[in-house]
């Protein structure tokens, strides 16, 4: 096929005047831990409009993990830890899902239709992978490598939040710790948070890390690094001040775990 008959390459999804796909906080932070926040933002690339959603829908949990960005920023500053935050909404593409997963790009989320995600062709999906998904995961891998070069295998902690009610059922947990095969960091966090006495902590609740744990499985589990996901109930972190306070509280807990030999050892859990 001649070059003149080839289909033109699709235009880049992000325009030059838009934020990059991710933000790195405190890249030179000295703590041997990396924080990641897959669902930090509800921003939509200008080329996609609003995906057919109104401002109210974009302010809901379907578009971002409410409070997670502020908690991550607070923890990064308090712990002197690097962090990688996504700059675009999970509705464009979910960074915590394998690209082939049916919820990678959703047409409906919690009964809210997403018109801009309907019947996407291969090129449309590829543009989102190229612009957002791959750069974010490359940034996470680079930050882990940078910490490892200092000689101490880092812990990796993913920060999320969850809705107080889903499917007609209330969720009693105030925080949940998610893990898959490697329970080292998860058990330590559950013990420390439970010891505070005023937090109901879920062990792989309200979600299970054994079901969907893409970011941590790929970057930490496969590398033998201690890791866990932390979820905080969104009604507790709706306001910036409350999210900041939870970030401080979580930092208090995590700070006491940094330097523990078993949490900075590379181990394989099959």
Structure description:
- This protein is of the alpha/beta class.
- It has a single domain (16-263), classed as Zn-dependent exopeptidases (Aminopeptidase), CATH 3.40.630.
- The chain has helices at residues 55-58, 68-79, 122-148, 184-195, 214-219, 240-255, and strands at 22-25, 33-37, 83-86, 108-109, 112-113, 155-162, 165-166, 169-170, 175-178, 201-203, 227-233.
- The chain has a seven-stranded mixed sheet with strand order 1-3-2-6-11-9-10, sandwiched between helices. A two-stranded antiparallel sheet has the order 4-5.
- Strand 7 (165-166) and strand 8 (169-170) form a beta hairpin.
- It starts with 21 loop residues before the first strand and ends in a 15-residue tail after the last helix.
- The model has no long low-confidence stretch (mean pLDDT 95).
Number of discrete domains: 1
- Overall mean pLDDT score? 95
Question: Which stretches are low in confidence, meaning pLDDT under 50 for 5 or more residues running?
Answer: none
State the end-to-end distance: 47 Å
Proportion of strand residues: 15-25%
Main beta-sheet annotation: 7 strands, mixed
CATH architecture: 3-Layer(aba) Sandwich
What is the C-alpha radius of gyration, as a whole number of Å?
19 Å
Give me the secondary-structure category: alpha/beta
Count the helices. How many? 6
Strand order of the largest sheet: 1-3-2-6-11-9-10
What do we call the CATH topology? Aminopeptidase
Give the CA-based shape: globular
- Report the CATH C-level class: Alpha Beta
Determine the fraction of residues in helical runs and give it as a percent range.
Answer: 25-40%
The CATH homologous superfamily name equals Zn-dependent exopeptidases
Order of helices and strands: EEHHEEEHEEEEHEHEH
Question: How many E strands?
Answer: 11
